[in-house]
Specification:
This protein is of the alpha+beta class and 188 residues long. The protein has 2 domains: 101 residues, Orthogonal Bundle (Peroxidase, domain 1), CATH 1.10.520; 74 residues, no CATH class. The chain has a 4-stranded mixed sheet with strand order 2-1-3-4. The longest helix is centred in the last third of the chain and has 22 residues.
């Protein structure tokens, strides 16, 4: 249900943004609203509190966001509250952000390595990703994970390229255990 809500409202916001030529404006505002929602636990608590009625919640939305983001984004937030979907605010806005990135051919990649990469290595990774994907640019996120031992793991959306030594060792170990089982099965 949550995914359906995110898709319906996120698609509607995206269509409005494209029609009005405000894709980038709404993108910045969506990112800002998500930041407020994540940082301010009080907002989520108020919006989900059973003793605060719907009108008061709509007033809270107006007080926090009106004049800071466009009327369209405020309207979306109000609609989510009116339809009892305010809990899905992050999902809706994240879905919109993903739609914008796809529309603009911007990829988001997370690269995990056992050691910090140099700037030249980072540039090489990004260059290779641009050559092997349909994206025209990337937002890169680098993570140091010493457990990988060597190699790297690259995540783009739901795709994962894992060339880490840790994974190769795990695969080899699994293959060896299968060989040992087969040898044991053949014994008289």
């Amino acid at each position: 249900m949550a995914k359906l809500v995110s898709n319906v409202y996120g698609d509607a916001l995206f269509e409005l943004a494209v029609e009005s030529g405000r894709v980038d404006d709404f993108l910045k505002e969506a990112e800002g609203v998500i930041e407020v929602v994540k940082k301010d636990d009080g907002f989520s608590q108020m919006m989900n509190h059973p003793k605060i009625n719907k009108e008061e919640k709509l007033q809270i939305i107006d007080e926090i966001f009106k004049g800071r983001v466009s009327d369209e984004i405020v309207g979306l937030l109000r609609m989510l509250e009116e339809k009892d979907h305010i809990k899905e605010i992050e999902g809706v806005l994240n879905y919109y952000i993903e739609k914008v990135y796809d529309y603009k051919k911007i990829g988001r990649a997370t690269v995990s390595t056992p050691l910090e990469l140099t700037d030249a290595q980072k540039a090489d990774v990004e260059k290779r990703l641009l050559q092997t994907t349909e994206y025209s640019s990337f937002i890169m996120n680098y993570i140091v994970d010493p457990e990988l031992i060597g190699g790297m793991v690259i995540r783009i959306k739901d795709r994962v390229v894992d060339s880490s030594i840790k994974t190769q060792i795990n695969k080899l170990s699994h293959e060896l255990s299968n060989i040992q089982l087969k040898v044991g099965e053949c014994a008289p």
